[in-house]
Design brief:
By secondary structure, the chain is of the alpha/beta class. It has three domains: 3-122, Nucleotidyltransferase, domain 5 (2-Layer Sandwich), CATH 3.30.420; 130-237, Helix Hairpins, CATH 1.10.287; 244-396, no CATH class. The protein is built from 15 helices and nine strands. It has helices spanning 25-31, 41-48, 61-74, 84-94, 102-116, 129-162, 182-187, 194-201, 210-237, 243-251, 256-266, 297-305, 328-342, 352-366, 371-396; strands spanning 3-8, 12-18, 35-38, 54-57, 78-81, 281-285, 292-296, 310-315, 318-323. Strands 3-2-1-4-5 form a five-stranded mixed β-sheet. Helix 6 (129-162) packs antiparallel against helix 9 (210-237), helix 12 (297-305) crosses helix 15 (371-396) and helix 13 packs across helix 15. The chain is globular.
């Protein structure tokens, strides 16, 4: 087997090709003929000329690893991904390699395969092609949302003295609409509005400048990109394989965007179950109680994927629990869902999920706990409930 470890940088990769695992990796590090390839046609050809059977790299997102992984996959090379945390621990603890550098990471990735290739859980799961595309679109929507906020804020600040009557108007697209928001479209000259024409004819402001209109045009262009992405996202989510997931998401009151975010991270749910398709539960002796204690391993893996698995950090008399790892996008999206659909009583879900989470949230707040902590706890509980409902739905389906 020709095993290739790849450490991906912005415009190049460091590569280490192994035919077998070195007995002394630390010594081998100083003797190994490492390769460096640039992100151009010569670099890709030279990489493929090594004729690897399996390539390993870290999941560095769509921007860097996608180029190399795609060319390798097209050439028939199996590509496996190793988590950042797992590689860091393996490199320092198991291999005792020198200070971190690109070559050391490439060697560690190649060695990692020889030690763990029989254990699929040691590698980041390879997602379905449709799910990969859903994730790309979800990340693009999050980027567009971040880009629009400062532009919209700049427009509102300028409208405060140019056209103050509409400076605080929250102009949004209607659900399912393919038209840009009315205010931005009117400012950009793309949509007509008798109301805004009338208000502007009597404004106390000093008049709309070209700068505001240019900014409004930028927002309209970004909105059109959002519309195109949402259209493609709806087509991908209509896949019959996701039907059971959508039924559960609807029960939780998740919107299209939140459903897409979660689906891109957790599909298929079978990845979190044991070989028999059941939640993995082990009974171990408790470290404190010394009594038999159930450990819900599948549920915890699911929580961790969503960014809501607590980790104990204890030293002496100091005991702290914090969230480590998982998807930041899912964590934020679930936290916002709690903030908008569970916390406000007037919009709270009118079902068992809303009742369980709502009562828990109300009691936590009544106890005087910090509201941000309460929301995080409710989101973590929602993640556990979501796992149970998905497992139940898949079993029945």
């Amino acid at each position: 087997m020709r095993i290739l470890g790849l450490d991906v940088s912005k415009s190049s990769v460091s590569a280490c090709l192994l035919l077998e695992r070195p007995d002394l990796p630390r010594q081998f590090y100083y003797e190994c003929p490492f390769y460096r390839f640039s992100a151009n046609i010569e670099g890709i050809k030279a990489l493929l000329a090594l004729k690897p059977d399996i390539a390993l790299m870290e999941p560095t997102g769509n921007n860097y690893s996608k180029l190399w992984g795609t060319h390798l996959a097209r050439a028939g090379v199996e590509v496996r991904l190793v988590g950042h945390k797992e590689l860091k621990n393996y490199r320092s603890s198991h291999l005792a390699l020198p200070d971190k550098d690109d070559d050391a990471d490439a060697l560690a990735l190649a060695c990692y395969y020889f030690d763990y290739h029989t254990d699929p859980r040691r590698f980041v799961q390879i997602r379905d092609q449709n799910i990969v595309r859903v994730r790309e679109l979800v990340l693009r929507l999050a980027h567009l949302n971040r880009v629009q906020s400062p532009i919209a804020n700049r427009i509102r600040q300028d409208l405060a003295w140019q056209f103050p009557e509409v400076a605080l108007v929250r102009s949004r697209r209607c659900d399912g609409s393919d038209r840009v928001p009315l205010l931005w479209g009117w400012l950009a000259g793309e949509r007509k509005s008798t109301r805004y024409d009338s208000l502007y004819s009597q404004t106390v402001g000093l008049g709309i400048t070209d700068t505001v209109r240019y900014h409004a045009q930028r927002l309209c262009n970004l909105q059109r990109e959002e519309i195109a992405i949402e259209r493609e996202l709806r087509e991908l989510l209509a896949d019959s394989r996701f039907q059971v997931y959508h039924q559960v998401f609807k029960y939780f009151g998740f919107g299209t965007r939140l459903s897409a975010v979660l689906l891109s991270q957790i599909y298929p749910i079978e990845n979190y179950l044991d070989a028999d398709g059941r939640p993995e539960v082990k009974i171990c002796k408790g470290r404190v109680s010394k009594k038999p204690t159930k450990r819900h391993l599948s549920e915890r893996r699911f929580q961790k994927a969503l960014g809501y698995a607590p980790s104990l950090n204890s030293s002496g008399d100091n005991h702290r629990i914090k969230i480590v790892g998982g998807s930041d996008l899912c964590r934020i999206a679930l936290w916002q869902w709690v903030f908008t659909r569970i916390e406000p009583k007037h919009s709270r879900l009118k079902n068992e999920i809303g009742q369980i989470l709502g009562e828990k949230l109300d009691s936590e707040k009544a106890a005087g706990r910090p509201v941000r902590l309460v929301r995080s706890r409710i989101a973590a509980k929602a993640a556990r409930l979501l796992f149970k409902e998905l497992v139940k739905a898949i079993a029945l389906g």
